[in-house]
Write a structure and sequence with these properties.
With 272 residues, this protein is α/β, with parallel strands linked by helices. The protein is 28% helix and 34% strand. The protein folds into two domains: 77 residues, no CATH class; 175 residues, 3-Layer(aba) Sandwich (Rossmann fold), CATH 3.40.50.
């Protein structure tokens, strides 16, 4: 018998519960890029949108002090639990801050600020996008660096039909042999004018071939074009230092899969 669908669960709580297992099931390659950047520049680091610590923890384990900012109590609770299992020296290097990246001010500046894995694509209004970039700039030392990534829009790729479901990933449930969770994605709408789309993540738990649980969480993401980002940087008083089209630091051209930027404060901002 299938359990009642839990669509009323808090979005972040559901995402937090499955986040680590889901993304361990696919080959994300961004963490080494941010770790290497932190090692080159040195800490302390500020990570905005730190989630459950997928990028934060490797940086702390490498001996670098890092502050994590996130607005989701559920994500931060899981990160706190994970920190309790880390050696004391790792735990001491981490400071967590609940807060919204559009408005948070920590009264501290950093040599490096990072926003890995696309939290900026959850900023949908121009005002929110500028506010988040200004938060990063406000926390930079005058010679500091700010790095983030968003996906490169694929205008040549066919879009999923509205209402179509596709299987994205699956993983086994620890301690429950024969039980797996499959995450599906269903496209709900596309707004080409405002450059965003809405969809639904569907988490289905199977015992063998039997579906025993189904849970859903909404997704709302905005995509950016390159000229649009350059304009946002100007509005946030930021200048591009480096830009890449992949985490292997490939060029940002027609073959790119990501848009990755390393920025600094503009001279105008520093002079104020």
């Amino acid at each position: 018998m299938v359990h009642t669908q839990e669509s009323t669960l808090d979005t972040y709580a559901l995402s937090a519960r499955y986040y680590d297992a889901a993304y361990a099931a696919i080959d994300l390659v961004d963490a080494p890029f941010y770790l290497e950047l932190a090692q080159q520049i040195g800490g302390p680091v500020l990570e905005m949108g730190c989630g459950t610590g997928r990028v934060l923890l490797p940086i702390a384990r490498a001996g670098i002090e890092i502050h994590g900012l996130d607005q989701s109590p559920a994500m931060l609770d899981i990160l706190k639990e994970k920190l309790q299992r880390e050696p004391e020296e790792v735990h001491r290097r981490v400071t967590l801050h609940p807060g919204d990246m559009r408005s948070a001010r920590l009264n501290q500046q950093f040599p490096i600020v990072i926003i890995p894995f696309r939290p900026l694509q959850h900023m949908h209004a121009i005002e929110d996008q500028i506010a988040a970039l200004r938060t990063a700039a406000a926390h930079l030392n005058d010679d500091g660096r700010f790095a983030f990534d968003v996906f490169y829009p694929r205008f040549d790729a066919p879009r999923s039909a509205i209402g179509e479901e596709r299987l994205e990933m699956e993983w086994p449930v620890d301690g429950k042999p024969g039980t797996i969770i499959r995450r599906f994605y269903r496209n709900e709408s596309i707004d080409k004018t405002h450059q965003n789309f809405r969809g639904t993540f569907i988490y289905r738990t199977f015992e063998g071939d039997r579906l025993v649980r189904e849970e859903t969480a909404p997704l709302h993401m905005t995509w950016y074009t390159y000229p649009q980002l350059r304009a946002l940087f100007l509005l946030a008083d930021l200048e591009v230092v480096e830009e890449y089209g992949s985490f292997a630091t490939g060029p940002l051209d027609n073959s790119a899969t990501e848009m990755i930027f390393v920025l600094k404060k503009s001279k105008r901002s520093i002079a104020r």
